[in-house]
């Protein structure tokens, strides 16, 4: 009954346009609904993370790249991290320069891994440090990263930079933005 009245009052071509408009409006509503409930990306470069699996479990690292989409090469969301394998040890005033230099050395690792195997922390690395680390990694091509010698040179380069960064850290609490990288250089107690 209603259809018959509707067809007599409104011509056919106008009804089609109205249906198209109705579908478009419905599409926009559904799109907004999905965006509202879709989770934002919080694993951004510069985030300090804790490794959860493997040989480096419990070690702290810097997230350099995060690919949340899968590819043919990697069937899972993955990320590139640079972490500290051996942390610098405690230094006192009584120690000489040579001993201080020896105790403040550290060992670095570079790893491509599944994002499920890292736990993000609330800390972020300052932009200048992140940019410097990223530049050093990008100088080496991805294909060359598979080469053992190139990887070794990159680790050595990053180790020197991070050790120098540690030696010039400002004193202060972790609440201070500049001193937040202190968290990276302290061993996780668990």
Automatic annotation (TrEMBL):
Keywords: Ribonucleoprotein, Ribosomal protein. Pfam families: Ribosomal_L27e (PF01777). GO terms for cellular component: cytosolic large ribosomal subunit. The keyword Ribonucleoprotein applies. One of its GO terms (biological process) is translation. It comes from the Eukaryota. SUPFAM superfamilies: Translation proteins SH3-like domain. GO terms for molecular function: structural constituent of ribosome. Belongs to the eukaryotic ribosomal protein eL27 family. This is 60S ribosomal protein L27. The lineage of its organism: Eukaryota, Sar, Alveolata, Ciliophora, Intramacronucleata.
């Amino acid at each position: 009954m209603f259809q018959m009245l509707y067809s007599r009052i409104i011509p056919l071509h106008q009804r089609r346009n109205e249906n198209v408009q109705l579908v478009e409006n419905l599409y926009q509503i559904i799109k907004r609904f999905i965006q509202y409930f879709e989770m934002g990306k919080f694993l951004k470069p510069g985030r300090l993370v804790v490794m959860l699996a493997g040989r480096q479990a419990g070690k702290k690292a810097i997230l350099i790249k995060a690919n949340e989409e899968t590819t043919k090469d990697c069937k899972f969301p993955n990320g590139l991290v640079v972490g500290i394998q051996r942390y610098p040890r405690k230094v006192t005033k009584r120690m000489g320069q040579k001993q201080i230099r020896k105790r403040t050395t550290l060992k670095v690792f570079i790893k491509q891994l599944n994002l499920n195997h890292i736990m993000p922390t609330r800390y972020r690395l300052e932009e200048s440090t992140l940019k410097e680390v990223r530049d050093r990694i990008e100088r080496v091509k991805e294909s060359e990263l598979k080469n053992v010698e190139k990887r070794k040179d990159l680790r050595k380069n990053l180790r020197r930079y991070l050790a120098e960064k540690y030696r010039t850290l400002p004193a202060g609490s972790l609440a201070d933005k500049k001193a937040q990288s202190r968290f990276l250089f302290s061993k996780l107690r668990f």
